[in-house]
Write a structure and sequence with these properties.
- This protein is α+β, with helices and mostly antiparallel strands.
- The protein has a domain at 42-112: Winged helix-like DNA-binding domain superfamily/Winged helix DNA-binding domain (Arc Repressor Mutant, subunit A), CATH 1.10.10.
- Helix content is 33%, strand content 25%.
- The strands form 2 sheets. It has a 4-stranded antiparallel sheet, with helices on one face. Strands 5-7-6 form a 3-stranded antiparallel sheet.
- Strand 2 and strand 3 form a beta hairpin.
- Helix 2 packs across helix 4.
- The longest helix is centred in the C-terminal third of the chain and has 13 residues, at 79-91.
- It is globular.
- 17% of the residues are buried.
């Protein structure tokens, strides 16, 4: 006989997601909820937002973001990251508690204000 599968834990039911005031980024079902509304965005933008938001206040260089989101084989300009960040900022405006910020000369971070 086959034993029944264990019930999924709460984290398994929810999948991979990060949640902040007025922002939920769910990588499992590729959805973004901002201020209670669904926000459409291409997969790379969503992956970039999730990656930054999953490591609050950590600074990432353009190269690190390219490697993680686009892969080591990506051949192109690091400005691709800048374009995606610009589009993200247009879709999810800065919030009182968090923002995607530029760290001049280094890269970007998802800044959580205390």
């Amino acid at each position: 006989q086959v034993a029944p599968a264990p019930a999924p834990s709460a984290s398994e039911q929810q999948g991979e997601y990060v949640e902040y005031p007025d922002l939920i980024v769910n990588l499992t079902n590729y959805s973004v909820i901002y201020r209670g509304h669904s926000v459409e965005m291409p997969p790379k933008e969503l992956e970039l937002l999730y990656f930054l938001a999953a490591s609050p206040n950590q600074v990432f260089t353009r190269e690190q973001l390219l490697d993680h989101i686009w892969g080591y084989e990506y051949i192109g300009d690091t400005r691709t990251v800048d374009v995606h960040i610009k589009r993200l900022r247009e879709k999810i405006k800065d919030h009182a508690n968090w923002a995607i910020t530029t760290v001049w000369g280094i890269g970007y971070k998802f800044e959580v204000k205390r």
